[in-house]
Amino acid sequence: MSTTTSSSAIDTGPTAASRAERSTRARLAPYVVLGLALWAAVTWLVGLRQGALFVVGIGFGAVLAAVSFGFTTGWRAWINDRDPTGLLAQFLAIALTMVVSIPLIAGDAALSGAIAPLSVSLLIGAFVFGAVMQVADGCGSGTLYKAGLGNVFSLAVLPGFIAGSFLGAAHLDAWLALGSLEPVALPQTIGVAPTLALQLAVLAALATWVWMRRRVTDTRWKGRAVYAGAVWLAIFAVLNLVIAGQPWGIVYGLGLWGAKVATWFGVDLAANAFWGRPAQQTHIAQSLLLDVTSITNLGLLFGAYVAATWRGTASPRTTATPRQWLAGVVSGLLLGYSARLAFGCNVGGYFSGISTGSLHGWVWFAAAFAGSLAGVRLRAALGFKA
To answer: Given pLDDT bands bounded at 50, 70 and 90, which one contains residue 315?
Structure first.
């Protein structure tokens, strides 16, 4: 009797697993077909490079959503719970991207790094961004990938982010007039090998420091998936650099979307100090599919939704009070505006800044993390869960 029951149980397991696998494949199949159709359409309309960047964007979104790789959450988990997992994964992704990207940029004049000046606007913008991203529960990539999941709160944050990015770029020259120093590209200042050695040493020191001060034994990131995600993010970041000629970024594309909307409503941007520049006027006039940042952003949205569908986490339920909804909309506007003042969000300023050897990336990290220390308290005061 017991032998029969045991045998039956053994036979049932693989059958259930097979059914689950078939169900997953059935859910994914339409999106795979749609993804191929979108890639073919992009490639046909605007060329192979943009088609390839769309695929890279899908990769970014799929990785971020599949392993819940969040810059914002990683910082908050450390601040509130002394959980180092998210920070360690970020340091790993930056280090891996850096050891490939910096030599590539040094050896190819067609490639450029995320190099930006050291300015008052950088300090203010990064601090504000670090604070409000905790309220919005997402930075640039986090807001995009969660919007791709169908997260209603992030979908409410995103329009403000777009508007803020547009306005921040429009006002950037006035902020730079407050004072700035020339950009410092470490590979050009001290050399490629010293830059790699110095930055790897700093990342290792930071990783050791957060690990030694950890308190939690049960992290929200189970297993090693988040570290595998860090490796994949590094791979896609290098591909983005090689294909686009510039590092991974988020915010410029969102600001360009805002500029497009403004012109649709009859706003003349020709006289604006930023959007009136010939290169920007060209970008506004042409298809968004031709912009290297926009095309990866669009791919990221799609990739996140596909990954969430695979995991069964698409369209998560969101509950918030009216005050929290208002805070989300306002934080979106501040996210976009402050990111432009700081020359990027967690991706363009922190991740790509450090991984391509710009000193401003380290300043961005320090100022934004200080902002997050205040932001987690503001988040708690508004009644959001930790």
So the answer is: low
Cα–Cα distance between 203 and 170 in angstroms, integer?
A: 34
DSSP secondary structure, 315-326, as one string: S------HHHHH
Q: What are phi and psi of 292, to 5 degrees?
A: -65, -30
Nearest to 137 by CA among 123, 149, 125: 149
Strand partners, 358: 185
Note whether 344 and 130 are within 8 A (CB): no
Domain-embedded: residue 16: no
Q: Taking the CB of residue 194, how many other CB atoms lie within 10 A of it?
A: 12
In the block, which residue shows the tokens 């708690």? 380
Phi–psi pair at 358, nearest 5 degrees:
-95, 130
Its domain, for residue 283, covers 27-381
Residue 129 has pLDDT above 90, yes or no: yes
Give the burial string for 38-73 (b: 16+ CB within 10 Å, else e): bbeebbeebeeebbbbbbbbbbbbbbbbbbbbbbbb
d(Cα 113, Cα 247) in Å, to the nearest integer? 6
Two tokens, residue 53: 């960047």
pTM above 0.85, yes or no: yes
Q: Name the nearest CA neighbour of 189 among 180, 203, 204, 199.
A: 199
3-state secondary structure of 67: coil
Domain assignment of residue 321, yes or no? yes
The count of C-alpha atoms lying within 13 angstroms of the C-alpha of 220, restricted to the half-sphere facing its C-beta, is 18
What is residue 11's predicted lDDT score, i.e. its pLDDT? 45
Contact 83, 213 (CB under 8 A): no
Q: Note whether residue 291 is domain-resident.
A: yes
**Number of structural domains in the chain:** 1
The per-residue pLDDT for range 45-84, each reduced to its tens digit, is 999 999 999 999 999 999 999 888 889 999 999 999 999 9
Could you give the CA distance from residue 322 to residue 195 in angstroms, rounded to a whole number? 48
Tokens of 119: 């300015």
What pLDDT band is residue 378 in, cutting at 50, 70 and 90? very high
Query: Which of the 8 DSSP states describes residue 348?
Result: I
In what helix (H) or strand (E) does residue 354 lie, and over which residues does it extend?
helix 352-355
- The answer to whether position 250 is within a domain reads yes
Q: Which residue has the higher pLDDT, 116 or 32?
A: 116
pLDDT in tens, 187-204: 999 999 999 999 999 999
